[in-house]
């Protein structure tokens, strides 16, 4: 398995020992991590964090990887100063914690970040990727936000939006076959609804044997057999962005 026996949602044991190559900035009322490529570009990607927040080294690693591939990458604090989840927290309180952090109520922050990318970074083509909680947020934005070009939802918690599938922009969905958080029945239902209602390009891909968190968890050293799937997920993500940005 790609991940810990009790998947995520994700685990402190998977944290990268990683400092990041970018810098922290203040974007109106939001703190954000920004990493820029060496060459000038008008392409940018908003990276939406999981429940562990915008400072998680794993997520910053992905932002840096996007910059290495030629994108301005920004990971804002979509919890807007509220505490991120800690693995030491009591999981019995998780649902109560989640009530004040709704992945479907990030429109104000998204607009602020889009304005920053356009006005301060010269971005003209902007996409979004997100993990877990952030993957659900991506699906929300793909249903609502006219200013984004494309999205990648990585093991997004689709049950939050399982009645909505009329996407506005091309969207790529990444899932793990063994994800206890997102059962394959939910993925099948998503595919059915997309087939019925979606008029833009989309793809749903399930990665064999992988559990929740595999794309942005550093498990290569622990389970080498999963390395090809982790690399494939990251490559697929970049390829999708390259195609639509």
Assembly category: single chain
- Structural class of the helices, strands and pairings? alpha/beta
How many DSSP E strands? Answer: 8
CATH topology: Rossmann fold
Q: If you compute it from the alpha carbons, what radius of gyration comes out, rounded to the nearest whole angstrom?
A: 17 Å
The DSSP helix count reads 6
Can you lay out the helices and strands and say which pair or pack?
Blueprint: E1 23-27, E2 30-35, E3 43-48, H1 57-68, E4 72-76, H2 94-98, H3 107-121, E5 125-131, H4 133-144, E6 150-154, E7 171-176, H5 184-197, E8 202-207, H6 227-244
Parallel strand pairs: 3-4, 3-5, 5-6, 6-7, 7-8
Antiparallel strand pairs: 1-2, 2-4
Describe the structure.
The chain has 245 residues and is of the alpha/beta class. A hairpin with a 2-residue loop joins strand 1 and strand 2. It has six helices and eight strands; from the N terminus they run E-E-E-H-E-H-H-E-H-E-E-H-E-H. An eight-stranded mixed β-sheet has the order 1-2-4-3-5-6-7-8, sandwiched between helices. It has one domain (23-244): Alpha/Beta hydrolase fold, catalytic domain (Rossmann fold, 3-Layer(aba) Sandwich), CATH 3.40.50.
């Amino acid at each position: 398995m790609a991940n810990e026996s009790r998947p995520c949602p994700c685990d402190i044991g998977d944290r990268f020992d990683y400092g990041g190559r970018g810098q922290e900035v203040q974007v109106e009322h939001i703190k954000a991590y920004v990493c820029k490529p060496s060459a000038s570009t008008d392409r940018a990607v908003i990276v939406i964090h999981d429940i562990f927040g915008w400072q998680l080294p794993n997520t910053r690693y992905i932002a840096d990887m996007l910059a290495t591939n030629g994108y301005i990458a920004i990971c804002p604090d979509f919890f807007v100063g509220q505490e991120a989840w800690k693995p030491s927290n009591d999981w019995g309180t998780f649902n109560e914690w989640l009530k004040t952090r709704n992945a479907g109520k990030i429109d104000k922050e998204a607009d602020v970040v889009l304005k920053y990318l356009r006005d301060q970074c010269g971005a003209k083509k902007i996409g979004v990727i997100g993990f877990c909680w952030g993957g659900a947020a991506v699906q929300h934005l793909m249903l609502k936000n006219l200013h984004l070009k494309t999205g990648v939802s990585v093991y997004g918690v689709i049950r939050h939006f399982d009645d909505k599938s009329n996407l506005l922009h091309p969207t790529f969905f990444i899932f793990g076959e063994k994800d206890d958080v997102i059962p394959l029945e939910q993925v099948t239902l998503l595919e059915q609804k997309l087939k019925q209602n979606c008029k833009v390009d989309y793809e749903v891909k399930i990665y064999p044997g992988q559990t929740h968190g595999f794309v942005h968890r550093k498990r290569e050293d622990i389970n080498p057999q999963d390395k090809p799937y982790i690399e494939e997920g990251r490559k697929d993500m970049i390829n999708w962005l390259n195609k639509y940005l």
